[in-house]
């Protein structure tokens, strides 16, 4: 990442920090949604994008984090800060248990995606039948003192997830993940601890997604199993990461931002058909540019710089 790009990103982050002083309530609400999707897409990318183990049920940790926060603050009467801690710990422990069950048994990548999807539905059913935590009726959470709490929390989380991805890419650990992505068997033969690499990234992804879920639950002021473990949460983070550029640092950010803007525009202009149009648009763009939006950005930059490899787009990081 070049120095001008770093300065541009820093300027955008600073602008977002001062923006609430003059922005409308609608703008704040929209940006809270954008930050949520950036954090989710980036967290999914930390594991699936860097290891090749695509998970279609990573939203299970969103639901676990949301319920951990709701139970701790509503039923146990804990301080919200303690709720956030629990919302990080419980998904992390869940990831350890699922990781030992799935990642140490050399389950095939395709099967991993399906099994995670199944676990998400199992968790939804279990929570919906536990009366002590509201069952299918859910839990009402005391409202935020201000929506700016969610705004700044999710902004920091989105920036943090992206910074973590950038830092990992620059370490030997990142090289190990790159080797696993290319050929896991070959990586293991060369001495790379493939299980350890996958487990650490799986747990890290779960913790960050759980934290996102906890704040979103507080922002919504209500949570039930069908909201917390909604499959669309899992699908959205996957599609946004792929659309932006899976396995890259800025790809999930661009994917989440662009898709959030397009989704909002379509829902207000053609509310009856926006879901269909949005789905077709995403499908066409992914087929047209499988490397994601980040590939287009880098191709345009090479073209402007006069690079002979501009048309090909190349691999981006």
Q: In words, what does this structure look like?
A:
It is a single chain. The protein is an all-alpha fold. Helices cover 74% and strands 1% of the residues. A two-stranded antiparallel sheet has the order 1-2. It starts with a helix and ends in a 12-residue tail after the last helix. The model is unreliable at 309-316 (pLDDT under 50).
Give me some keywords for this one.
317 residues; mainly alpha; two-stranded antiparallel ribbon; 14 helices; 1% strand; disordered C terminus
* Proportion of helical residues: over 70%
Q: How far do the termini sit from each other?
A: 8 Å
Order of helices and strands: HHHHHEHHHHEHHHHH
SS strand fraction: under 5%
Structural class: mainly alpha
Major sheet: arrangement of strands: 1-2
Overall shape: globular
What would a concise description of this structure say?
The chain is mainly α and 317 residues long.
Question: How are the secondary structure elements laid out?
Answer:
Elements (H helix, E strand, L loop, with lengths): L2 H16 L6 H27 L7 H17 L4 H23 L6 H20 L10 E2 L6 H23 L2 H11 L1 H6 L4 H27 L1 E2 L1 H4 L2 H14 L6 H19 L4 H15 L4 H13 L12
Antiparallel strand pairs: 1-2
Helix pairs in contact: 2-6, 2-9, 2-11, 2-12, 3-4, 3-5, 3-9, 4-9, 6-9, 11-12, 12-13
């Amino acid at each position: 990442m070049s120095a001008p790009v770093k300065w541009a990103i820093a300027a955008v982050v600073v602008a977002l920090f001062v923006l609430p002083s003059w922005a409308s309530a609608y703008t704040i609400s929209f940006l809270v949604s954008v930050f949520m999707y950036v954090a989710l897409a980036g967290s999914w990318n930390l594991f699936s994008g860097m290891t090749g183990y695509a998970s279609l049920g990573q939203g299970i940790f969103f639901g676990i984090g949301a319920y951990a926060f709701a139970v701790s603050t509503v039923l146990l009467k804990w301080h919200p800060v303690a709720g956030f801690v629990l919302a990080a710990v419980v998904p992390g422990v869940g990831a350890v248990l699922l990781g030992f069950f799935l990642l140490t048994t050399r389950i095939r990548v395709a099967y991993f995606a399906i099994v995670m999807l199944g676990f998400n539905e199992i968790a939804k059913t279990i929570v919906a039948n536990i009366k002590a935590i509201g069952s299918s009726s859910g839990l009402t959470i005391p409202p935020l003192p201000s929506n700016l709490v969610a705004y700044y929390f999710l902004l920091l989380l989105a920036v943090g997830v992206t910074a973590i991805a950038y830092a990992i890419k620059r370490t030997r650990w990142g090289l190990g993940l790159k080797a696993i992505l290319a050929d896991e068997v070959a990586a293991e033969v060369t001495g790379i601890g493939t299980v350890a690499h996958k487990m650490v990234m799986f747990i890290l992804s779960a913790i960050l997604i759980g934290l996102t879920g906890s704040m979103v639950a507080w922002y919504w002021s209500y949570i039930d199993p069908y909201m917390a473990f909604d499959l669309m949460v899992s699908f959205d983070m996957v599609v946004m990461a792929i659309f932006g550029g899976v396995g890259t640092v800025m790809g999930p950010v661009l994917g989440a931002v662009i898709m959030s803007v397009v989704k909002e525009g379509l829902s207000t202009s053609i509310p009856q058909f926006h879901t269909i149009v949005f789905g077709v648009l995403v499908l066409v763009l992914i087929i047209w540019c499988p490397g994601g939006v980040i590939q287009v950005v880098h191709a345009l930059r090479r073209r402007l710089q006069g690079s002979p490899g501009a048309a090909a787009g190349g691999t981006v990081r």
